[in-house]
Amino acid sequence: MSGDVDALARALAAQPERPELRFDLANALLAAERPEEAAAQFRYLLERYPDHVGVLTNLGNALHTMGRHAEALEQYRRAVALRPEVAGALNNVGNVLMALQRPEEAEPYLRRAVQADPNYAQAANNLGGALLALDRPAEALEWFRRAMALDPDPFHATFGAAIAQLTLGDYRGGWRDYEARWRDPRFTIDVPDYTAPTWDGGGVLTGKRMLLHCEQGLGDSIQFVRYAPLVRQRGAHVVLQVQEPLAGLVAHLADEVVPQGKIARDEPVPAHDLRCPLLSLPRAFGTRLATIPAGAPYLAAEPARIAAWCDRLGPATKRRIGVAFSGSPEHPDDALRSIPAAHLLAALPDAEIHVLQRDIRPADEAALGPVHVHSADLTDFRDTAALLACMDLVVSVDTSIAHLAGAMGRPVWILLQFAGDFRWLRERTDSPWYPSARLFRQPRAREWETPLAALSAALTTIRHPQ
Fold first, then answer.
1. Does residue 319 surpass a pLDDT of 60?
2. Where does 303-459 sit in CATH, by number?
3. What pLDDT band is residue 336 in, cutting at 50, 70 and 90?
4. What residues form DSSP beta bridges with 256?
5. What CATH number does domain 2-182 carry, 2.40.110.10, 1.25.40.10, 2.60.120.10, 3.40.109.10?
6. Which residues does 353 contact at the CB level (< 8 Å), separation at least 6?
7. Mean pLDDT estimate for the chain
8. Which of 64, 108, 172, 366 is most buried, by CB atoms within 10 Å?
9. How many CB atoms lie within 10 A of CB 16?
10. Which of 152, 155, 37, 156 is nearest to 98 (CA)?
11. Position 147 pLDDT exceeds 50
12. CB contact set of 441 (below 8 Å; sequence gap of 6+)
């Protein structure tokens, strides 16, 4: 590809008056993953050809690649204004509006795109994504399936269909289609090149070394590590590979635990005969809503650590509530799922508040005031679990703290964004994964007033333990 760029650059230097050479060079730069340079060439052309749809579109593509979505939207909309019935231009607008987390605006553009070209698989898939973000999973599933029928390699649409099915509680089809994630570079970029076969739930495991490995976030590992004892019950020697902060907390669930700061291709893989990613275990066990292994708590804090924390906190004079108002800022839905600390704390009057998360954002620090913050003392999840065990109640957004409280069987009230993650299903105030959880849902995107008011009102109905 660099050869194409170099050749086109030489040709353009020799004949700078030929705009088609500059256009080809800009496209080659974009294909070579040099979007900043490509954008400069497209802007040069745009000054001379302001109504050139191809230049507008590809400048939008370069800006989109750089994460400058609002600027990309401006260029895409100019292209649509010039060619209002071109399916690709309409899809571009819808796609960048989704990147800006504006699905309500994206939907009409994507519908126009599939009307303009009924065989446009990418637009059908993107429309499914918009409908999923609008909390309409049944409609989304129809469009994902249409995209699957149109696309010869439909792993994006198959993964979307999985999310829609899991959201609707169809675990048979959902867990099956969820395996499509392994065709997506977002899920495979940091995963080692395993050579052992993936366990699908069958066969005799007695005497086999089974590697169960994490693949996504801390909350995912906490939720699905519950399956490790079930694999041991089948006779396997379980080697559990989890994120380093979790290793000590989950050690009792496996025969060996391999802590990983992050699974990487250049790290040694523990010896094993079979392996299974943690989020593939529900499929291997044929999990349905009625058979989720959600009995006794499967994680617990060490008694000595609990005693140490409770001594440090001293006697409680009010209801003791542990809170988590934000998760990882790298999460794609972080702006939708996290709450400003001030908003959450205002809904928790007359309580002794303890922050359970370790990382505090600068924008939230000023709101913490009299709140107890323990960031410096939370070295790993064993400390977090012990502090959590000293709480009467945990109130959390959808992050690892919520999963930890649920896995420990502690009372946890979870604030969920509109069109929340598939694991929380829809239109429920409880969770089949965590019997001790109570769910408070947004009625519309970015509207926290309603669930916070409901949570605050619910607090008045429970008494402080004496």
1. yes
2. 3.40.50.2000
3. very high
4. 239
5. 1.25.40.10
6. 321, 322, 323, 345, 370, 371, 372
7. 93
8. 64
9. 10
10. 156
11. yes
12. 416, 418, 420, 429, 451
At residue 220, the pLDDT reads 96
Cα distances (Å, whole numbers) of residue 140 to 110, 131, 149: 12, 5, 14
CB–CB of 433/293 below 8 Å? no
DSSP β-bridge partners for residue 441 = 416
Per the DSSP assignment, residues forming a β-bridge with 407 are none
Whole-number Cα distances in Å, 187 to 44, 136, 202, 263: 37, 25, 25, 11
Query: pTM for the full model?
Result: 0.92
Closest to 391 in 3D by CA, of 409, 370, 379: 409
Dig out the tokens for 153 from the structure. Answer: 């390699």
Spell out the residues 6+ positions from residue 254 whose beta carbon is closer than 8 angstroms to its own: 212, 228, 232, 238, 239, 240
| Domain assignments of the chain as residue spans, ordered by start | 2-182, 209-291, 303-459
Helix (H, G, I), strand (E, B) or coil at 263: coil
Q: Which residues are within 8 A (CB) of 378 and not within 5 positions of it... i.e. 6 or more apart?
A: 356, 358, 384, 387
What is the CB neighbour count within 10 angstroms for residue 429? 11
Residue 398 and residue 417 in contact, taking contact as beta carbons nearer than 8 Å? yes
Q: Which of 165, 159, 161 is nearest to 146 (CA)?
A: 161
Would the CATH topology of 2-182 be identical to that of 303-459? Answer: no
pLDDT digits (tens, 9 = 90+) for 84-97: 999 999 999 999 99
Rg (CA), the chain: 25
- Predicted local distance difference test score (pLDDT) of residue 370: 85
pLDDT at 238 over 50: yes
Two structure tokens written together for 133: 């973000």
Identify how many contiguous H helices and E strands the chain contains and give both numbers: 23, 10
Residues written for the chain: 466
The answer to which of 22-26, 56-60, 110-114, 328-332 has the lowest mean pLDDT is 328-332
User: CA-CA distance, 405 to 62, in Å (whole number)?
Assistant: 43
Calpha distance 195→150 (Å, rounded): 32
First to last CA, the chain: 71
Alpha helices in 19-136 (DSSP H): 19-31, 35-48, 53-65, 69-82, 87-99, 103-116, 121-133
CB-based contact 309:316 (threshold 8 Å): no
Per-residue pLDDT, 222: 97
